[in-house]
Amino acid sequence: MSAKRFDPYGHTAPDAAPALDKDFESGHYSNENRKIAASGENSMRGTGDIEVRILLVTTAYNGLCQRAHIELVDCGHDVSITLALNEDEIRKAVALFQPHLIVCPFLKEKVPADVYRKTLTIILHPGVRGDRGPSSLDWAIANEESEWGATALQADEEMDAGPIWATAVFPMRAGSKASLYRREVTRAAIEAMLATIERVERGDFTPEPLDYEDPKVRGALRPPMKQKDRAIDWRRDAVATILQKINAADSAPGVLDDIDGEEFYLYGAHEEGQMRGAYPGEIIAQRHGAICRVAVDGAVWISHLKKKNVAKRSFLDRLIVGHSKAFDFKLPATMALGEKAKELPHSPIEPLYRGAGNTFKEIWYEEAAQVGYLHFDFHNGAMSTTQCERLLEAYRLAAKRPVRVLVLMGGTDFWSNGIHLNTIEAADNPADESWRNINAIDDVVCEIVSTMNLLTVAAIWGGCGAGGAIMPLAADEVWAREGVVMNPHYKTMGLYGSEYWTYLLPRRIGPCMALELTERPLPIGMRKARAIGMVDRTMPDDWEAYLAELRRGAEALAQDPDYDDRLREKRESRAEDEAIKPLASYRAAELNRMRVNFYGRFYGGDTSYHEARHAFVHKTRPKRTAAHLAKHAQLDFSHLGELRQPLTY
Amino acid sequence: MFFDYWPVLFVDDEPDVLLISKLAMKNFEVYGLPVKIYTASSKAETIALMRDNAEVACNLAVAFLDVVMETDHAGLELCDYIRKEMGNTTTQIFVRTGQAGLAPEREVIDKYDIAGYFSKIEMTQSKLYSVVKSSVRQYLAFGMAQATIELTQALLSAYGSREEIMHAVRAVAGPNERQENAPRWLIVDGEPLFADEVDAPRALTTLKRLKEQRGVPLGPYGDRYVKDADGYQSIDVAPYGSHAETSFVFKSRFAPPASILAMMHGFVVSLAVAWRGSGE
Questions:
Q1: Which tens digit of pLDDT belongs to each residue from A596-636?
Q2: Which residues in chain A have their CB less than 8 angstroms from residue B53's CB?
Q3: Do A606 and B2 touch (CB under 8 A)?
Q4: Could you tell me whether strands A463-465 and A485-487 are parallel, antiparallel, or unpaired per DSSP bridges?
Q5: Are A472 and A478 within 8 A, CB to CB?
Q6: Are A249 and A255 in contact (CB under 8 A)?
Q7: CB atoms B57 and A582 under 8 Å
Q8: Stretch B120-146: mean pLDDT, rounded?
Q9: Which residue in B86, B151, B179 is closest to A603 by CB distance?
């Protein structure tokens, strides 16, 4: 595909490729039904020899949107982003950017008709061909679909009913809605988006109108899933049903349920393999913030809760009055329950858990062929003070095992996203809790950097952000899945950042690139990360293939004939760095800057971080699209010189 | 500067020493503000406290460390922890020892970054009084100088963009929990920078009232400092040359001495120049 030339409707492209090169649902597009697509009313006709401008219209700059952004920029397109805050905001962005194509990776709102009539607008819908409605994945999980997909369809009067440009499908997996969205749906949606752009550019493709008579169309219009559809009947529902119901509502809106007379939304369900109780619905244990509830045929762990009907409060109100201990955001279950959880018996597990049975575990360890694999799967990748402390303990134990390579696996949805903003927000003193949390995560990073008895590999399958994107750099090798999105910056949270980033980032990618990554708060994809040396190796997007390659790579590293030399070089290099500037000095300098973020100093206090954290935790929508995303709203300094040219009369 | 008190830490494994120190600090004020006492009985306890409490970790004005606690040199190691591990160069650290033989004064002062060394016998109540008072002054002067340099540096980096300038001075007059009772405003060319529709008229009324009073000139071109009986104070930069008309208005029990005032004035001038130079 040409990156710089664009002929969206292709009426000037007679030599277009005759066959599809994407492995989409077979038979959906035949050569016979490819026609010249455009109708005369579209203004995109005849843009043949100009640079491709693509506007992303999105409800939020979420993981899928970030991935779409990265992929499009990597393809050489000129991309700008606008949040769909209101119709005029979208119109303004279109008027300023004059896009050839609009792509909506994640959109809850409707695109104004005057916009999609004038500019081809593609909606990425998380469902198979013909699926419509706002609860696609929820129903797919509830109905136990064996296969699901993502579809690129053209915006039209009726929501999700426009002509279909591309579809990609995947086998369904047992997991939460958010997990499926972050992995399978994202991958399929990107595939469908890129195929669509290729087809639009090639110009010989006719999108298929939605026709429910067509046997290929498996989807249907589904209503929004209501809480009555999700409700758990603890006296009847089996463990599998409960898991399915919570998964279908995770991470939003959660399943509304009653706990001891109070209404909570439930999240993060895990099957318990051994513990049993007499009364279905009864809470019988707690572990690391999660609670264990009895079901008719077993028990289920629930890791997170959100209280219903808690009035939202503004940041200033929260700042001045303090919090009321009633939180309208998701928290570890025992924290949300407060006093009610105090008496619950603890169900401890080993710090370096090696069991294979079903139970709730955030940290576990495997070992094979002189390689240790340390998993830390924290909800949404957020690491609270206590989670960091447990991870540090587990890491120390793992590093003492008789292995030659220790692989830091992170979690399956996220490797890590740094400090835990929700638990900080809920703390009596958020400044103190921020301080504890950053110190605890720094301890983990310091321990990894200081490990001299074996080689370490950070294996990144899920995304990572903030300190969680710096932490992998503490390892000797960083290997990542091709589709990973990293956000190695702190600025959007009003923080200077710690986790030894001032040592680790320039050491790997040099000071100039470190400045670019931290000052421009944009995500980076693995092509760029590999090119600049932030990751050493990229691995397949498919889980099984990823795991196989990871194991092969780690075992090869453990058996490497140069292993001892590598270990010696590592020790020497660390000692050399330490002699120039001790690790403690990097940390001290970072924390000095963080102090001002957390806690006021001589001229007063900086509340940027506290305000940004409040907005993040309460999911406050921004009032405008951030300047670093809205390219259409940026001044093009390279053309400013033109303004200084003398006027000609 | 905008603290309510001066945090002071006493570390000693003798409970009596801690008790007497606390008593000696009663009704004690520096620049109109009381001291808030934190105590710990060992190096480990102090480190735990610093890891747990951001105020002790970040804003400690003075620390008195006993030398011999869980080990013969625990207090000296703690001093190193504060300076090197915590990167805290502002807190005034004093070493107090009951066994000078284990940590001779010259050796300690040569090796550790401390403000003073005393034997426990030397540290009388009046000595404590003068040491705390003078070291809070020292802490304030050094801290304000550091903070002023950081702010000026941030303003220089932000030069050219008023949005960036606003970001740079957010810590000074941005939204904060004390705005109701101890407000801080930055007012440039008649516009309070961060105030909302309720706070802005309050800022302008206060400034107008202070402008009507006679102030202390800060240089020959109309810059001045004024303080009223209620604790409202203003540092005004007059509009001349490259300076936008700028005022830093605040309420505090603390009346800055001349040296601190000069630093604050320097910051307001930097803002006035950056703002004017950054255009619309």
A1: 788 777 887 767 888 889 899 988 888 889 888 999 987 65
A2: 432, 435
A3: no
A4: parallel
A5: yes
A6: yes
A7: no
A8: 91
A9: B151
Q: What is the DSSP string of A593-609?
A: HHHHHHS-BTTB---HH
Q: Which amino acid is at B112?
A: Y
- What per-residue confidence (pLDDT) applies to B255? 80
Residue A575: strand, helix, or coil:
helix
Which pLDDT band, with edges at 50, 70 and 90, does A385 fall under?
Answer: very high
**Model confidence, pTM:** 0.87
Choose the mutation target among B5, B38, B51, B251 for the interface with A, i.e. most A CBs under 10 Å: B51
* Residue of B176, B185, B199, B254 to mutate when probing chain A, most A C-beta within 10 A: B176
**Which residue from A601, A607, A611 is facing B59, i.e. has the nearest CB?**
A601
pLDDT given for residue A494 in this prediction: 86
Residues of chain B contacting residue A599, judged by C-beta atoms under 8 Å apart: 54-55, 58-59
CB A631 within 8 A of CB A97: yes
Topology classification of domain B159-277:
Beta-Lactamase (3.30.450)
In degrees to the nearest 10, what's the CA dihedral of A337, A340, A346, A349? -10
Which residue spans of chain B are classified as CATH 3.30.450? Answer: 159-277
Q: What ipTM was estimated for this complex? A: 0.81
pLDDT at A37: 35
Task: Measure the CA–CA gap between A191 and A83, rounded to whole angstroms.
Answer: 22
CATH homologous superfamily for B6-137?
Answer: Response regulator (3.40.50.2300)
Mutating which of A318, A419, A602, A637 best tests the B interface, going by the most B Cβ atoms within 10 A? A602
User: Distance (Å, rounded) from C-alpha A8 to C-alpha A202?
Assistant: 7
- Asked if B151's CB is within 8 angstroms of A608's CB, the reply is no
Q: What is the pLDDT of residues B72-102, one digit of tens each?
A: 999 999 999 999 888 888 999 999 988 877 7
With 50 as the cut, is the pLDDT of residue B267 above it?
yes
Distance CA A363, CA A350 (A): 9
* CA distance, residue B59 to nearest chain A CA (Å): 7
* CA pair distance A170, A187, nearest whole angstrom: 9
Structural contact between residues A166 and A24, judged by C-beta atoms closer than 8 angstroms: yes
Short-list A68, A38, A33, A35, CA closest to A216: A33
For residue A292, which phi and psi values (nearest 5 degrees)?
-110, 120
Contact A147, A141 (CB under 8 A): no
Is residue A263 within 8 A of residue A308, CB to CB? The reply is yes
CB contact under 8 A, B87 and A587: yes
Which residues of chain B does A436 touch, with a Cβ-Cβ cutoff of 8 Å? 51-52
- Are A185 and A151 in contact by the 8 Å Cβ rule? The answer is no
Residue range(s) of every CATH 3.40.50.2300 domain in chain B: 6-137
What is the edge-to-edge ordering of all strands in the sheet holding B92-97?
B29-30, B33-40, B6-11, B62-66, B92-97, B116-119
Alpha-carbon gap: B121 to the closest alpha carbon of chain A (Å):
34
Contacts of A603 in chain B (CB under 8 A): 1-2, 147-148, 151, 171-172, 267
Average pLDDT of span A551-569: 98
Whether A439 and B86 have beta carbons less than 8 Å apart is answered as: no
Q: How many CB pairs under 8 A join A and B?
A: 95
For the residues of A378-408, what is the DSSP string, one character each?
Answer: -GGG-B-HHHHHHHHHHHHHHHTSS-SEEEE
- Interatomic CA distance for residues A490 and A467, integer angstroms: 8
Q: Which two tokens stand for residue A583?
A: 């690790």
Q: Using CA atoms, how far apart are residues A190 and A171, in angstroms rounded to an integer?
A: 16
Instruction: Round to whole Å and give the CA distance between A436 and A419.
Output: 10
Average pLDDT in the A554-558 region?
98
